[in-house]
Amino acid sequence: QQQVKQSPQSLIVQKGGISIINCAYENTAFDYFPWYQQFPGKGPALLIAIRPDVSEKKEGRFTISFNKSAKQFSLHIMDSQPGDSATYFCAASSWGGSWGKLQFGAGTQVVVTP
Amino acid sequence: EAGVAQSPRYKIIEKRQSVAFWCNPISGHATLYWYQQILGQGPKLLIQFQNNGVVDDSQLPKDRFSAERLKGVDSTLKIQPAKLEDSAVYLCASRMSAEAFFGQGTRLTVV
User: Fold this and answer.
1) Among residues 20-39 of chain A, which lie with CB inside 8 Å of chain B?
2) Residue (of B75, B60, B65) closest to B26 by Cα position
3) B65 contacts B19 by C-beta, under 8 angstroms
4) Residue of A99, A103, A104, A109 to mutate for B, most B C-beta atoms under 10 A
5) Tell me, what's the pLDDT at B70?
6) For A8-29, how does the pLDDT look when each residue is reduced to its tens digit (9 = 90+)?
7) In this structure, are residues B105 and B90 in contact, taking their beta carbons and an 8 Å threshold?
8) Which residue ranges of chain A lie beneath pLDDT 70?
9) Inter-CA distances, B22 with A66, B71, B73, Å
10) Which of A5, A53, A88, B91 has the fewest CB within 10 Å, making it most exposed?
11) Does pLDDT of B50 surpass 80?
12) A105 close contact with B: CB closer than 8 A
């Protein structure tokens, strides 16, 4: 049972363009939604995260948009750069006295062309 | 602040052999996870520890995988005997608050 569904599987964007990755979740108990960036041979690194009490969070060129009623959230990468070429994972987690597991999406491979 | 340390980085074994992975989490992080990441997929939780107690091992293939967390700090994950389908990257992560930190992983190839 895939609790977090991510799309697209891959995308190619030109330098300076906008990359958009979408995720949907089922479990309404989730209350923490991070995005991770992973380069080949490396572990996932936290990029940006959001809680459900806000609809948008921006950090530099990266923005999360969150729609609680639709149970969807998305990552926008503005002014995409070749160094942004990586695999991006959305995830979700919940607090129940302690932090539960991170449920990951399947990942999106982003390629930024010069 | 030191990150999550994992060793070895790479391991190649024959099927039916045994293998062990080691993880040293960030100091003070009570929560420790082991994830399996198959090429082209998202990480899948194998086991979660809170201090030295198991919180979730529902997806751990217990007939061949085992894990322990000594004194609530370091952790080891063992596979015995290994199968071809165990070829993957094994990631360790630790967490004290919302943010979880991952190690670089151990890439296991079973031949």
Assistant:
1) 32, 34, 36
2) B75
3) no
4) A99
5) 83
6) 999 999 999 999 999 999 999 9
7) yes
8) 1-2
9) 37, 14, 11
10) A53
11) yes
12) yes
